[in-house]
Design goal:
Blueprint lengths: L10 H6 L10 E4 L12 H14 L5 H15 L2 H9 L3 H7 L6 H4 L4 H8 L7 E5 L4 H10 L8 E3 L16 H11 L7 E5 L2 H9 L4 E5 L23 E3 L2 E4 L5 H4 L10
Parallel strand pairs: 1-2, 1-4, 2-3, 4-5, 5-7
Antiparallel strand pairs: 6-7
Helix pairs in contact: 2-3, 3-4
The protein binds magnesium ion (MG).
Magnesium ion (MG) binds next to loops.
Protein name: Pyrimidine 5-nucleotidase
Length: 266
C-alpha cells in the first residue's frame, strides 16, 4: 500500500487497502452536487424538505427539526451524521427516504458545456474523479442523468454502511486521505479540487490540497438545505480569498488550471 498514512486505522481501511500502480498525473476531484450541476436545479431545497420531514418523523416538531438539521449540518458537514450519532438513525433508511426519493430525472438535465469542459481536460496530464458526501448510488445516478459518467474515472463517496466510529465525510481530514488512497496519489499538492462548500474547500487545504477552488455560483449557495443563502450574483472574474480561488462559473477552471486542458480554442 502506498499513499498518505490514514488518520483512521480501522480494520475497514486495512481491508480496503488496494495496491495501486504509480501514477504521477495530478487528480482533479470534482464535488458532484451543486458543482457538476447548477444549484438552480434546487436539489438542495428538495433534499432539505425531505430531511426535515425525516427528522419530524422521529417525533420532533417542525422547529426542532429545522434547528437540528441546521446544527448537525454545521457541526458534522452532513445532517445524517448527527442523526445517526444522536438519534440512532439507520443511514440506509435515511438515504432511501431522502436522496433516493428525489425525482432527479425531472430536476436535472445534461449541460453540454460541462461535458465539453470535462472532455477538454487532457487525460495524459490529469485524471478526473469525483469526491462526494453522498452515497454511491446517488453519485452514480446524478452522473448518469448528467451524461457525465464516462468522463469520471472514479467516485469517492460516503459509505453509509460504515460503523459510526469509522464514518468519514468532507471536511474531515481522513476523508481526503481516503480519496488520495483511492485514486493512488501520494502528493497532496497533486490533488486539484473544486466544491461549492467553502468548509469542504478549507478542509481540503488543511490536508495540503493547495489547489482547491471554491465554486460560488451566483444565486444560491450550499449543498444541504436551510443554509440556502441567496447571494448577489457572483463576480464573473476569478477572485482569490485567503489563497483560495473563487469561481462563479465552472468554465473558469480553464483559466485557473490552464495546464491541464487541451490547447485552448475557446
Ligand atoms: Mg456540493
Amino acid at each position: 500500500m502506498h499513499g498518505q498514512p490514514f488518520a483512521n486505522s480501522s480494520p475497514f481501511f486495512k481491508e480496503m487497502a488496494v495496491e495501486h500502480t504509480h501514477d504521477d498525473r495530478p487528480v482533479l476531484f470534482f464535488d458532484i452536487d451543486n458543482t457538476l450541476y447548477s444549484s438552480s436545479a434546487k436539489i438542495a431545497e428538495a433534499m432539505g424538505v425531505r430531511i426535515r420531514a425525516y427528522i419530524k418523523s422521529l417525533g420532533l416538531s417542525e422547529e426542532e427539526a429545522s434547528n437540528l438539521q441546521s446544527q448537525y449540518y454545521t457541526q458534522y458537514g452532513l445532517s445524517l451524521l448527527g442523526l445517526r450519532r444522536h438519534h440512532g438513525v439507520d443511514p440506509m433508511d435515511f438515504h432511501e427516504k431522502c436522496d433516493g426519493s428525489l425525482p432527479l430525472e425531472e430536476m436535472l438535465s445534461p449541460d453540454p458545456r460541462v461535458r465539453k469542459l470535462l472532455e477538454d481536460i487532457d487525460r495524459s496530464k490529469c485524471r478526473v474523479w469525483t469526491l462526494t458526501n453522498a452515497y454511491w448510488t446517488h453519485a452514480e445516478r446524478v452522473l448518469r442523468i448528467l451524461e457525465l459518467r464516462d468522463q469520471i474515472e472514479g467516485i469517492v463517496f460516503c459509505d453509509f454502511n460504515l460503523k459510526d466510529e469509522d464514518f468519514i465525510c468532507k471536511p474531515q481530514p481522513a476523508f481526503y486521505h481516503w480519496a488520495m488512497h483511492q485514486a493512488g496519489v501520494q502528493d497532496p499538492t497533486k490533488c486539484l479540487f473544486v466544491d461549492d462548500s467553502l468548509s469542504n474547500v478549507e478542509g481540503a487545504r488543511r490536508v495540503g490540497w493547495i489547489h482547491s477552488v471554491y465554486f460560488q455560483e451566483g444565486g444560491h449557495q450550499t449543498t444541504e438545505p436551510l443554509h440556502i443563502n441567496h447571494l448577489a450574483k457572483a463576480p464573473a472574474k476569478i477572485i482569490t480569498k485567503d489563497g483560495i480561488s473563487v469561481i462563479s462559473n465552472l468554465q473558469q477552471l480553464r483559466v485557473v488550471w490552464p495546464d491541464i486542458f487541451v490547447e485552448a480554442e475557446h
